[in-house]
Amino acid sequence: MRSSYGPRRQTLALVLAALVIGSSIAACGGPSWPKTVRGVGDPRFLAHQEVVDTVDVLPVDLQVWTEPGHQTGAYVVASEVDGTVAGMVSSQLARRGYQVVAQIDRDGRYVGPDGSMHDAMVPDDVTRTTISLSGYGRAQSRTAGALLMPFLPARLGEATGSDTTLYIGGWAFAGKKKSSHKAAKIIGAILIVGIIAVIAIAVIAGDKGGGGGSAVGKVAEGAGHVASGAVKVVGRVAVAATRTAGRVGFAVMRDPELFRLTVDMIDVFAQSGTHAQVYSGRPDYYAEGPRRGRSAMMLEMTLIDNHSGRTLWHAQQRFPASPERPEQIERAVARLMATLPAQ
């Protein structure tokens, strides 16, 4: 009598391989997060030799835009991501031993411990400072072996008495949701597992009945028809997505009011001599960043000593985070601020 041990062992191997392949297809596809985020700063501050207790936080300065045809307007995305970033930054600062004295709005005001509004800065000073610090990260990234002094057009911390001021900037891009693409991967994984399982049954049945070859051929032929139909469905989804992508998109250039004093700031840079050579001005990330594809965001933060005006700490990093996913925004903020020395 012929032993069926060989074919059955091969069948089991095929089934196991199909399960591994199917689960891999369903799980893969997402971009990996950076393993390391590095910050730079004043050596004494990084070595915990300089104590900082209090912080003022400037308005979040993110440039936000969406892919053409996106389901949500860019202004809605910008409002939500700004709120999430601001809340997470305050939480992370507290966890690292800092006291947030003032979370300054664009009018230069903040809510005090008594619940009433207080003035931290003149509105124009908030604007000028934000414009200036928006170009700091790019200049610092191009400077090796030195920590740049920021150009500060206004005194910081005078009204609040805080030790430091934190700038938060960068950009966020909301790509179109890829639900149909993800669904196609899952369907493909199920098809692979199902097809291999049916072939396995056919092999076992054929081994018992002596007609294994023809059984596998028929199953493979049927599987080919099923796979062909699945490809056509995915193709129709892809065509529809392509047509939708032709719609007009929107870009949020941080805050339109921030550009009102740009000309004045250019004059100030020119009069300051070295700053005109070091800082290239306010970056326009929308002109350089992604327009289609996966969502992403780049965060940068700069901590300024209010008394000396020097930089204590700076960090910036691009993350595969969606500005529409609060948990991903919070993860990105936490990863970046992990390089900030705890007090």
Provide a descriptive summary of the structure in words.
Strands 1, 2, 3, 4, 7, 8, 9 and 10 form an eight-stranded mixed beta sheet that branches. The protein has eleven helices and ten strands. Helix content is about 45%, strand content about 15%. It has helices at about 5-25, 45, 75-95, 125-135, 135-140, 180-210, 210-245, 260-270, 275-280, 285-290, 325-335; strands spanning about 40, 55, 60-65, 100-105, 110, 115-120, 165-175, 250, 295-305, 310-320. A hairpin with a 5-residue loop joins strand 5 (about 110) and strand 6. The radius of gyration is 28 Å and the shape is globular. It starts with a helix and ends in a 6-residue tail after the last helix. The chain has about 350 residues and is α/β, with parallel strands linked by helices. Mean pLDDT is about 75; it is low at about 1-5, about 20-30, about 180-185 and about 210-280. The protein has two domains: about 40-175 and about 260-335, no CATH class; about 180-245.
Walk me through the topology.
Layout: H1 5-27, E1 39-41, H2 43-46, E2 54-57, E3 61-66, H3 74-95, E4 99-103, E5 109-111, E6 117-119, H4 123-134, H5 136-141, E7 164-174, H6 179-209, H7 212-244, E8 251-252, H8 262-271, H9 274-278, H10 285-288, E9 296-305, E10 311-319, H11 326-337
Parallel strand pairs: 2-4, 2-7, 3-7
Antiparallel strand pairs: 1-10, 3-8, 5-6, 7-9, 9-10
Helix pairs in contact: 1-6, 3-11, 6-7
